[in-house]
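Hello Y.,

Per our agreement to keep a running log of every chain we model this quarter, I'm adding this entry. I've kept the format consistent with earlier entries: sequence first, then predicted structure.
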Amino acid sequence: MEQQNTAPVSLPRIGDKAPAFKAKTTQGDIDFPKQYEGSWVILFSHPADFTPVCTSEFITFASMEKQFAEANCKLVGLSVDGLYSHIAWLRSIQEKIEYRGHKNVEVKFPLIEDITMNVAKAYGMIQPGEATTQAVRAVFFIDPKGIIRTIIYYPLSLGRNFDELYRALIALQTADAFGIATPADWRPGDDVIISPAASCSSAKNRMDGKEDMVCQEWYFCSRKLPKEEVLKKVLNKS
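Predicted structure for the entry above:
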């Protein structure tokens, strides 16, 4: 009977420093996360080049790159394929593939070569229960100080929800900028959550008695945060 490999998979955790590495990419050498200090980064992995779900994702990421950049966020991709495979695949995407009205799409963000799987393993992207030779669809949100702030994993068969990736980025930045939390399904303009306090009155005191603060219970206080304030402070849009 063949013995299965049951060695535990090392997974970085939210709040950890992003594991550092140097590698080759389609945009030259990378020193991660050092060279991205001061910017948010979405580091994401895909199972393999020349696969359909991954192709749809790369077209979507590339079409949204400007939108992420306006939120001070850079994109960095990774798979365990080689550099020449990456280059050929991205060229094929640009020349031959159309997805949801997007065509002639040039992927300008770096795609990491990781034949040794060293980076994928450092980030827990190789999960033996799913595949031993391919990275799952992992997404790491890394803040300007190089700290992992959010991690999302998808199986090989499931394409990512890009509206949610962007929403999560803006929610993280809004929480940092205003010292609040965001409730379920929050989007800019929705009410935000004030962290629980010992009582409604102490919560209001902590918020300098803001009149727009509403406490339904001591543990559930919210206040309005106009969309314009979020756009101005997070996206620098007046």
